[in-house]
Amino acid sequence: MKTDFGTEVVAGVKTSLTMSYIVLVNPAILAQAGMHKRGVLTATALVCFLSSVLRGLLANLPYAVGPGMGITAFLVYSIVVNGATTWQTALGATVFAGIIFLLVTCLNIRRLIFLAIPLTGKCLKTPKAGT
């Protein structure tokens, strides 16, 4: 794919503006669970910035990385607000799940799972327009 510096700068600015939505909404949602809004805002901004830069530099993939709003809403509204557990325990479970995902990736288990799925269950190519 052909690109130039100007195109990359414009793409970066557009992505940053899009990410600003997540950086503002995520703390507002998590504050409803009892978390400190300014602390969550700072953490969200730093994690989005650092993980996006690292992904670009180390993996050579120019993708923005941010928190999943679906899991944030589930954590707050379905688990914490309903009284199933505290926000501290819910975040601990999220960290534990992240460690499991990291191990699954580092131990190449993701690849094994992918290979175990029959080809008929995979969508590997996007259909062409008009087909």
Can you give a write-up of this model?
- Helix 1 (about 5-30) runs antiparallel to helix 2 and helix 1 (about 5-30) runs parallel beside helix 3 (about 70-80).
- The chain is globular.
- The mean pLDDT is about 85.
- With about 130 residues, the protein is mainly α.
- The protein has 5 helices and no strands.
- Helix content is about 70%, strand content about 0%.
- The protein has helices at about 5-30, 35-60, 70-80, 85-105, 110-115.
Topology:
Layout: H1 5-31, H2 37-58, H3 69-80, H4 87-106, H5 109-116
Summarize the structure.
This protein is mainly alpha-helical and 131 residues long. It has helices at 5-31, 37-58, 69-80, 87-106, 109-116.
Annotation keywords:
mainly alpha, 131 residues, globular
Our estimate of the beta-strand percent is under 5%
Largest sheet, in brief, is: none
Are there runs of 5+ residues with pLDDT below 50, and where?
none
| Total beta strand runs | 0
| Helix/strand class | mainly alpha
Distance between the termini: 24 Å
Calculate Rg over CA atoms.
19 Å
H/E element sequence: HHHHH
Total of helices: 5
Mean pLDDT score, rounded? 87
Overall spatial form: globular
Helical residue percent band: 55-70%
